[in-house]
Amino acid sequence: MTELATAIIDAHGGLDRWRQFSTLSAHLVQGGALWGLKGQAGLLDDTTVTIDLTQEKASHAPFGADQRRTLFTPGLVELHAADGTVLDSLPDPRASFAGHTLETPWSEAQLAYFAGLAMWTYLTMPFLLAHPGVETEELEPWDADGETWRRLKVTFPADIATHSTVQTLYVGADNLLRRHDYDVEIAGNTAGAHLISDYVTVQGIAFPTRRRIFPRQPDGQPMAQPLVVSIDLDAITLA
User: Fold this and answer.
1) Is residue 54 exposed (0-12), middle (13-18) or buried (19+ Cβ within 10 Å)?
2) Total of domains in the chain
3) What's 81's domain CATH number?
4) pTM score, two decimals?
């Protein structure tokens, strides 16, 4: 890892502390234009996500009505009934997005795939920088909101399902995340600027609890509208 990657991890609680835990759960309240645009409004407005910290795996519950829940892994998505019955499954889920644009509707299983990879990426970052095969490179700084943010280019290996192979992190003078850029490959490479704030410390790990995602313009600046996704987190638990 680069010096900056190490400093970011240390600022969020350190790798040794992070590796004491194997699961994380958080209550989410979500909004924004994306869910309706994809034909799936309301399913994830108020839910709890649970992720595995030892492998890429996530579950949202409830997922819509009837106490359904999801099971996401990079190679398979399942929708489960409250009693565990498999209601739907999508093998090789990423291949199902071939030819998609931002406006292409998603099935429920495709929504579960996106939500799973997104929340697993968000909640394991920045500790994900230490994953084998992840490469980092410091970029030139960025001026925003009266501050100068350091920037880190992150290149992910093929075994990690995430928004895009190359992403960019922005951090303040305290080395806490301020912004996270990516291109959503499964939605026509739509460019996003993900603004991060309102940190809390849980069991020695620093977590942002407010996330707002806007379109990213060609000059790198986020657009003021539309709000693509909003995520507010609470009840964060590590075990």
Assistant:
1) exposed
2) 1
3) 2.50.20.10
4) 0.97
